[in-house]
Amino acid sequence: MSENRLDEGDDLKRSINWKQGAAIALGVPMLILPSLGYLPMYVSAAAILIWGISVLQGFLQNAAYAEMATTFPKASGLPGFAQHLFRTENYKGKYDKGKLIGGFTAWSYWFGWNPILAIFAITAGGYLHGLFPALGDTFTEYQLALISGLVIFGGLFIVNWFGLKDGALLGYILAAISLIPLVILAVAPFATGHVDLANITGNWWPTDWAWDMHHILMLFGIFAIAQWSACAWETAAIYGPEYKNPSKDVPKALLACGIICLVLYVLLQAAVIGVLGVEGVQEQSVSPLIPVAQAAFGQAGSIITIIMLIAAMVLIIQTAYLGSSRAMHSMAVEGNIPRVFGRTNRHGTPFVALLVIGAFNLVLISMGNAAAILAASAIGYTCANGISLFAYVKAKKHPAFANLERPFNAPKGWTNVSMIFGLFNVPLCLIGVVYLNSLEIGWTSTWVGFLVLALYLPIWLYSQHESRRTKPEAAAPPAVHAADEREKVLDLT
């Protein structure tokens, strides 16, 4: 077993099936909410096409992640794959650069998911302010966001304390509350005749669009923002160590989530633009679903919509809370951040990670700008996807991994597909999102994003010092030092 594994008692428990994993990940469709009015600002009705392409991109990327999840069932999704595949076994030097790359990938992924808690706590506070105007006489929107964060984070911490199985049960309940009405909102405007197709076909591209470098860089940035939402259902694979049967459960959970995202993302954007038109969406960029609900169901429908959306926000916060805590646990297990962050309770819950993530997001809420937080978060998520796809290529080509058993195999030629999309993410989408951020909200979010990513270096250096300090003084027997690298690999399989 790797020398960086934590002590017995820090292992995650195999307690869920594919339905429960999918239920937790079903919060992902709610990630479209902050961007329903954002994408049409730049690409008009072509936002519908962007969402469809981005979800299909998710299918292509997630096929690679599903294969890695079943090849390394003890690795926690993207963070676990990258950390294991890039590290150098039996490394004799002081600092393993491959281990640093793998850890940085996990850190980037953690930063991609982590701020979702703050983003939707701020959004929930805003919706509460709209649903109950009297609250504005007592609380500011910031105070409502902070209260929402405290209540939601605290409640989810208590629920998840008892293990992932209970988190999945909460996912079932919230999915019924939020996904079903969301599907109704996606379909009802078409059924009631409120969708005017001319709003879509007559405004497909902005009139001033030109295929020059400025607009191409913008398009890469838009794909990065869309990917942050439309590809995020890979979270179903991050629970690989906690599925009862990873070889069957992971592909099923990913397929179910992908189909739901494809239908909802395309229909929701089409319904919003079809009812309001591009200009109407831009005027209601923060919450365009509310006037859509008013058009389809009347004033009562808008109230129901707000209640439904708040429930949906709790669901996506639950998804992000679990995903980012597993990423932090994985980094601690691999010795890439201090070991204390990987501590689990007797139910297998990484409770220290949950506490730290909750506190960190309460600080983020103080920024008060959900758009800026999302823009910074997208930088981390883009880096994580790009490097993780390169890790898949290594897993297929490196002699130590090439012949491992793969209960689920991506289609033939997926190494090339993964390399293409890895390069699409890094550098193209990364450059694009930095450029788009500079146009939209200045350089603040970009600097915040890169600052958080850069903080990983001193944290990692400290964790390496900690690992060396706690390593047993007695040297391992020569037979262990001479063990074949592939035998080490089998520990994760």
From TrEMBL:
User: Which residues span the membrane?
Assistant: 21-39, 45-65, 100-122, 142-162, 169-193, 213-233, 253-276, 296-322, 348-367, 373-393, 414-435, 441-462
Q: Name one GO molecular function term.
A: transmembrane transporter activity
Q: What is its main location?
A: membrane
**What keywords does the record list, in alphabetical order?**
Cell membrane, Membrane, Transmembrane, Transmembrane helix
Q: What's any one GO cellular component for it?
A: plasma membrane
Protein's membrane topology: Multi-pass membrane protein
Renumbered residue ranges of the record's region Disordered: 473-493
Q: Where in the cell is it found?
A: Cell membrane
Q: Does the keyword Cell membrane apply?
A: yes
Q: Name one Pfam family in it.
A: AA_permease_2
Q: Where is the composition biased (Basic and acidic residues)?
A: 482-493
Q: Which residues form the signal peptide?
A: none
Q: What is this protein called?
A: Amino acid permease
- Organism (species): Pseudarthrobacter sulfonivorans
Q: What is the lineage of its organism?
A: Bacteria, Bacillati, Actinomycetota, Actinomycetes, Micrococcales
